[in-house]
Design a protein that fits this description.
The protein contains ten helices and 17 strands. It is globular and about 70 Å long. The structure holds tryptophan, zinc ion (ZN) and calcium ion (CA).
Amino acid sequence: MKFSVPRRTATLAVVAAMALGGLAGTTASAAPGAALAAPDIPLANVKQHLTDLQSIANANGGNRAHGRTGYKASIDFVKAKLDAAGYTTTVQQFTTSGATGYNLIADWPGGDPNQVLMAGAHLDSVSSGAGINDNGSGSAAVLETALAVSRAGLQPTKHLRFGWWGAEELGLVGSKYYVANLPTTERAKVSGYLNFDMIGSPNPGYFVYDDDPTIEQTFKSYFAGIGVPTEIETEGDGRSDHASFKNVGIPVGGLFTGASRVKTSAQVQKWGGTATAFDRCYHSSCDTTANINDTALDRNSDAVAHAIWTLSGGTTTPPGKVFENTADVAIPDNGAAVTSTVDVTGIAGNAPATLKVDVNIVHTYRGDLVVDLVAPDGSVYNVHNRSGGSADNLVATYTVNASTEVANGAWKLRVQDKAAQDTGYISGFKLTFP
Ligand code: TRP
Ligand code: ZN
Ligand code: CA
């Protein structure tokens, strides 16, 4: 079903996103190119994995917690499926709180070893229950996506690696251990890490992490395509394993359907459900197979596959030199222009006649916006002038004839919001010199 969001009132998510801020600095992540369409992930398969994880808990004192037999049994279960599907699996051991913990890493053979796309989920539960939403849901969706990669015989441009982390519930211990033991040279090859922790909450919201702009946009595009509105995840940035990767500079993203926070009435309007906790069984004994919203699990599982297909199949390092600023810049409502700057260095002579300008602006009404590229000497090239009306966001690539400009120097993206009420922020600005 297609939702219609009242255009001039849906500013909440953007305000929250601005408060959170984003990753600053320059990255080299390439825009995804044309990729094969991802398969529809069968919900029945994902649910079967949850049933199996529930059985493992039932046979092991009711949980799958770090240091308990149900955890190792969960690792063995996932590993066997991946081995049978042709993955190269590794079990990594660590010790925390006086018990052995395990991470499971699965590499899909092939792809560029210098560009690794990772996706992962924590496999441990808390000791009070089976942990089917937290985090059987993410574990099962990542597993089924990995199995779909095998069924499709996917040969992506990037190398694919999947991870199931131990002892997340003790403070992201397993994922921190993995990252700490990944040599610096190997870390630099990880072009992105996608995290899935709680994606089948019984009273779901559809939250996308506000981190790497390309990853974030990939998820948002998926949900836009099925007509499901999303919001930026704000129930605790850094509360799951993506933080371990983000902390060492790896671009991250992910999905979440909500934990103990209460759904607002505005969110009930948007997504249905009730104005109660997203997951009333969070960290409790009722987090069983009954604690799953099938629609949320289905959509999010398909979104996992969409992201893996899209982000792994894209063109590699774009030809030429790329200069990018991914720091978020708030755009004041109906106010002064703001800018995001990239410093271009190392290019002889003038800029090209085909300077590629990638603009990523998150906004609730792009018809409010005037967007210019400003050359180092102050010359102005208008790329967007209040067109597009009530559509959200301005995510576009423009080609600018900048052949009369000296290439090196500070180039600015200048954005002004010219009408009251709707707001947003610059999420990314990138120049590509062919
Ligand atoms: N990781 C948390 C847990 O397992 C759940 C959680 C809370 C979460 N807030 C989050 C996960 C935000 C992802 C994003 O207890
Ligand atoms: Zn948890
Ligand atoms: Ca406005």
